[in-house]
Amino acid sequence: MGRSPGTLLLKNARLVNVFSLSLQHTHILLAGRLVAAVGLEYAQAEAEQVIDLEGRWVAPGLIDGHVHLESSLVSPAEYARGVVPRGVTGVVTDPHEIGNVAGAAGIEWLMEASEGLPLEVWVTVPSSVPSTPLETSGARLGLAEIERLLAHPRVVGVAELMSFPAILAAEDGELKKVILAERSRKSPEGHAPTLTGPALQGYLATGIASDHESTTLEEGRAKLEAGCFLMVREGSTTRNLAALAPLLRPEHADRVGLVTDDRLPSDLLREGGVDFLVRKAIALGVDPAYAVRAGSWNVARHFRLARRGAVAPGFQADLVVLDDLHSFSAAQVYQRGRLVAERGRMCVELPKTRVSSAVSQTVRLPALQPSDLRIPARGGKVRVVRAIAHQVLTAEEHLEPTVRDGEVVADPSRDLAKLVCLERHGKNGQIGKGLVTAFGLQKGALACTVGHDHHNLMAVGVSDADIVTAARRLEALGGGLVAVAEGQVLAELALPIAGLMTDEPLEAVDAKLQALEAAAKALGVSLPDPYMVLSFLGLAVIPELRLTDFGLVDVRQGAVVGLFVE
Amino acid sequence: MGRSPGTLLLKNARLVNVFSLSLQHTHILLAGRLVAAVGLEYAQAEAEQVIDLEGRWVAPGLIDGHVHLESSLVSPAEYARGVVPRGVTGVVTDPHEIGNVAGAAGIEWLMEASEGLPLEVWVTVPSSVPSTPLETSGARLGLAEIERLLAHPRVVGVAELMSFPAILAAEDGELKKVILAERSRKSPEGHAPTLTGPALQGYLATGIASDHESTTLEEGRAKLEAGCFLMVREGSTTRNLAALAPLLRPEHADRVGLVTDDRLPSDLLREGGVDFLVRKAIALGVDPAYAVRAGSWNVARHFRLARRGAVAPGFQADLVVLDDLHSFSAAQVYQRGRLVAERGRMCVELPKTRVSSAVSQTVRLPALQPSDLRIPARGGKVRVVRAIAHQVLTAEEHLEPTVRDGEVVADPSRDLAKLVCLERHGKNGQIGKGLVTAFGLQKGALACTVGHDHHNLMAVGVSDADIVTAARRLEALGGGLVAVAEGQVLAELALPIAGLMTDEPLEAVDAKLQALEAAAKALGVSLPDPYMVLSFLGLAVIPELRLTDFGLVDVRQGAVVGLFVE
């Protein structure tokens, strides 16, 4: 009411009012972590600090509706340092990756590691750990564990129910995950790529409340009309905003939100997080007030984040002062009423990330010899995985293998490299072996412990000895990415947190990724983003041919298949 | 998906799509209690029953966002019989009245009595029982009880926090009620009549999420812009829809809902429940799809009622087939997928209401003699309550009393009647005594056990003996309304459930109310709705002068005052 002095008075703001979609010339009075009041009556209100914004815009802090923080390869604190200065004050993360490595303990570590940040991190409980029965993950999350995690106050839903064939088959276990979320008044989140028509109706009939996989306007519109909360995604690999921007309209009320899903360090540094979507939406012609609303209030409302997503009395004072609304250029960012970033830089100390035992030393390999990677020759053609540039998809090819001394071997002259998936959670030491083409690798090996979704050690190499060297190096690092040739490590990035993340700065990670890319190129690799592609070669839910520690998986059949075509 | 036969196929519907605000020509397939699918693909879908709607409209069942069911004077089952055939399939009720009489046990009875109805009844926990410290209520609801009730799955919030002076004074107990609601992910509901400017900002800064007391466009707009969920009310006494209709616009997304608050039997029978608001909003020029949305989805969304408020896959099949959208004329009503009403009549059996001991025989009076109502005379003027037609407000007047045999007495020639408030919960037998003008009563007495908010026995009379007769009759009936003259009961309505409700049909109640009104008129009463006015004369939160069992209350001072002006 202005009866006692506030902590901060922001005078002469042009407030993006997400309720009326108007630009409101007003004053904003903060009291500690909350917005106390908004109104022209407060021109002379007392406050510890008074700033005259001289007509600059104020928007609510943005909230990313669906992101896998692990994809940034950095700790939550480092991720915050990357996006908070851009005006992002909250994310809803799906810790699917760390859940696959370290289970509930990994998710709990992530919650601890994001406590007290100037970025609020809400969590949806991964619904599909492991993603398939054809892989060895580091952990399993059953219904009892999902239910337990749902009770946490920062948990706001069950994450993307991605096994849509199981859902359309009405498998009891999957449907129960929806019910568990509803019972705790939290959100059952969806993942329904390409679904329209009866399949979409069937998927949503379970009660699943959202989807972030739409790629066309028609698909997006069908989902919206069917009652789905439509998350418009612009990730690093998958970019759907241009196609779906026509749905970002005031008539669609709070039914559309903005999400990044996966953003790599280079994109975070150069484009940003969900702020990039607001900026791009405005550039695509979306009403700026509605674009801000889709990236703040609509997401807060979908997940029922109390007192978040707007600048209004009683709301948490998470807000961005903008030099320019159209380019969403953050001059200052306030979180919980405190100035946390200015002119693109954090101006508060970030808590140090503690790496607990639950997420460290997670790379546990069996005793490993180059001979363990031998593939005895037999007659006939073999299945070969064809990597595809800029795509998560792969293709299956049938080729005559190159055989030497009774062994199927890599053959750089035919662009055939050996592909290995090494169980690395210390569970059973299984080794999946196969061949891959399209990398262009001429010598040495590339390896990484980011291997969707089980995060076993994925390696591509023309030398078995170099694959073993790479694996050993990754074990010593506690996980990461490495390029090896002739027994020497050429470049590396350590990811000692669950083999997925580091607490190094984003800029350092980006530099090391560039060095890894350069090393791969020096080894002959012609494929862009070879580590990204390698990390997806074990993802046994996306067609066509994949390699897990169980061996080659034909995704269309949903079954392990032999290397040799029968 | 249409893979197995549904229970009902509604072909050729014009669906009011509350997500896209479009009228969608489509087919709707039900599977048991849920909507299985919506789409043109289902023209030939198999179902146990197929109905061709030939282009008739289908809307989601309406949900009333705030109502006191007790105001209907009938049981929840009878209320359902009144509104379900009109297209209402849900209400959010605030059992403030029965809570004041019978506490948590009364609220629990109401939940039991609304179990299994074709009308879903969600509950907000009354936040102000008792309403003031200047009255004896039948029960108190403390923080521990509010917290316990919040855990019930059908409880969706804490009801209207009406002690706004206490809230603006930041009283700890009131603020805790907001926090309790937030913690359980339920809604802290508001009640902020006339608040705008800094008082409104202060009220909402607590986290209170809604208001249903706006009477002007300016007030409504200010609340909407400040982040408040704006409930537009059209009750029996307070009618705000015409003033606020301009705010019912698609740009305001899901921020506006429709509520009835209080509707008397006659209005329920002649106008209806929240369906009346949809009809009237459309007549006032509101986009019909948006009017339906405000009366269904927006309310469901505000209270996070999972799978309610829309006709879409996975939603509960609560829907209305309309002969005409503009007049919202319900031809058929389906609830949980079952045809429950057709052409204005229920077509299913309603469960019989069981009256538990918690809510029966709640009228417990002290031994009472006419002499107990004597008011000894003193010198000087007395405070007199002036009743005001069609208003809840009263005025205070200072008059010379008529004195006979040393007693202040009623004086019909001066339109001065005796006003009595008799503690009737068996707590202390306190009797508040005073004088009232403007009724026009010439003989006898009127009395009722509906007496907001404490629901003590309120009586107005020119004969002390007739007041006692009326009170004794109400005790025998277990509560109700009565008109008495010369020791004879002229008309009565028994309200044996907590002294507030009956399980008789709405039509019978309406007829008895008319007989009571006629009896009052025969006794000289010139004031319209005398029982309604009488029932509010003890409401010690609305200016100016009231009478509780503590005595006269000056509401502006918030204190008990003497009958004689000092």
Q: Provide the β-strand percentage band of chain A.
A: 25-35%
Quaternary structure of the protein: homodimer
Based on secondary structure, the structural category of chain A is alpha/beta
Work out the helicity level of chain A: 10-25%
**Low-confidence runs of at least 5 consecutive residues of chain A:** none
How far apart the termini of chain A lie comes to 79 Å
Query: Number of helical segments of chain A?
Result: 15
Describe the structure.
Two copies of one chain form a homodimer. In chain A, the strands form six sheets. In chain A, strands 1, 2, 3, 4, 5, 14, 15, 16 and 17 form a nine-stranded mixed beta sheet that branches. The first copy, chain A, has an eight-stranded mixed beta sheet with strand order 19-18-23-22-25-24-26-27, with helices on both faces. In chain A, strands 6-7-8-9-10 form a five-stranded parallel beta sheet. The mean pLDDT of chain A is 96. By secondary structure, chain A is α/β, with parallel strands linked by helices. Helices cover 25% and strands 28% of the residues of chain A. In chain A, α3 runs parallel beside α5 and α10 runs antiparallel to α11 (288-294). Chain A starts with 5 loop residues before the first strand and ends in a 5-residue tail after the last strand. Chain A contains 15 helices and 30 strands. Chains A and B meet through β2, β3, α6 and α7 of A and β2, β3, α6 and α7 of B.
